[in-house]
Amino acid sequence: MLENKWSDWRDNNQKVLSEIPEKPGVYMMHADIKILFIGGSQNMKKSITEALEKKCVSKATRIRFREEGNFDEIKNKLITDYKKRHEGNIPQCMN
Question: What's the predicted TM-score (pTM) here?
């Protein structure tokens, strides 16, 4: 089975956004080493672009993503892991 691998953390800019695949997957965005948003969708490029239009998420300086058909399950696991490490809180732009 092929292991789905995360991209490196990439700068939030038009070049990087243009390279995000229009495929199912999960993604995370951060600023100042704080995770702002964890998401997943059928079309990562569209969802990341739409998320970045929101005021809070627009502060994200870096993005990482991975192709993942099972994106809902993986996204929920990432959020659960985040909450365990942050006293039950979710990323600040997900409130």
Answer: 0.93
CA dihedral angle for residue 63, residue 91, residue 77, residue 26, rounded to 10 degrees: -30
Q: 33: which DSSP letter? A: T
Q: For residues 40 and 48, what is the distance between their CA atoms, to the nearest angstrom? A: 9
Q: Cβ-count burial of 91 within 10 angstroms (0-12 exposed, 13-18 middle, 19+ buried)? A: buried
Percent of the chain with pLDDT over 70: 97
Pick the CATH number of 10-94 from 1.10.10.10, 3.40.800.20, 3.40.1440.10, 3.40.640.10: 3.40.1440.10
Helix and strand numbers (H, E) in the chain are 3, 4
What confidence tier does 3 reach under pLDDT thresholds 50, 70, 90? low
Any idea what DSSP says for residue 17? H
